[in-house]
Design brief:
single chain, 235 residues, alpha+beta, Alpha-Beta Plaits, 2 domains, 7 helices, 50% helix, elongated
Length: 235
């Protein structure tokens, strides 16, 4: 019985850890769906592709998050295997309704109970309660976030040497709002604007006289860390 309870606790805690990791990835600028996948990949040690792994290893904060998830994932896997094996032992589930049953049947009953528990937790993960819990965790992490960086940087392409292409939204409080590309100061920080996404239109290779408008999305090339830390993109 104790092993079954520990099994449920390990599964539930694993869910919490993966969600916290996903939120942490999301706060570094990853899209939410990609952040969830990366958190689950790090925790389980599976599912990485070359391009997506570069999004993590090329970012200092994400490397720390990934390392944290990998360590906890390995520890959780060992605990989960041990509790699963113990739960299937005939004498572990000593319920009154099992007394008198053949000993060979009890492990199968134990397995059935584990399957029901896992299915119940799966339903919980996809329930509104899980989404509400995720929102609570996200608010708490945002409140504790020490960085003032609130711009969402979407990484489109990562190249060698720390360079990459990022999509940066322009908010109403952005320092570069209503300035032209020439006057924005981006070139002085070695940030090249490859295109401007404005609504349903895309201005490729925009002239330096192009004004930057609210809700524009700048497709920028440069050192990814420099782009993220640039004061020109701070809100």
């Amino acid at each position: 019985m104790l092993s079954l309870i520990l099994f449920v606790v390990v599964i539930f805690v694993s869910f919490i850890v993966v969600r916290i990791g996903a939120i942490a990835f999301h706060l570094t600028g990853l899209d939410w769906s990609l952040a969830k996948f990366q958190a689950l990949s790090c925790f389980s040690g599976t599912g990485f592709t070359t391009k997506e792994s570069e999004l993590v290893v090329g970012h200092p904060q994400r490397r720390k998050i990934a390392s944290f998830l990998m360590v906890l994932g390995n520890a959780g896997l060992v605990t989960l295997i041990a509790t699963t094996v113990n739960s299937l032992r005939p004498r572990q589930l000593e319920f009154s309704f099992l007394k008198g049953l053949p000993e060979w049947l009890i492990p199968w009953i134990s397995l059935a109970i584990l399957i029901v528990v896992v299915y119940g937790l799966y339903r919980f993960v996809n329930s509104n309660a899980a989404h509400r819990m995720t929102n609570v965790l996200q608010r708490k992490l945002i409140a504790r976030q020490e960085s003032s960086q609130t711009v969402s940087f979407e990484e489109l392409t990562i190249t060698t040497g720390g360079y990459g292409v990022l999509r940066v939204p322009v908010s109403a409080s952005s320092p570069i709002l209503h300035k032209t590309l020439m006057d924005s100061g981006l070139k002085a920080e070695n940030i090249l604007v490859l295109a401007i996404v404005r609504g349903s239109d895309t201005i490729a290779n925009p002239p330096v006289s192009t004004p930057i408008q609210e809700n524009d999305e700048l497709i920028c090339f440069g050192q990814t860390d420099s782009i993220r830390s640039s004061e020109l993109f701070q809100k």
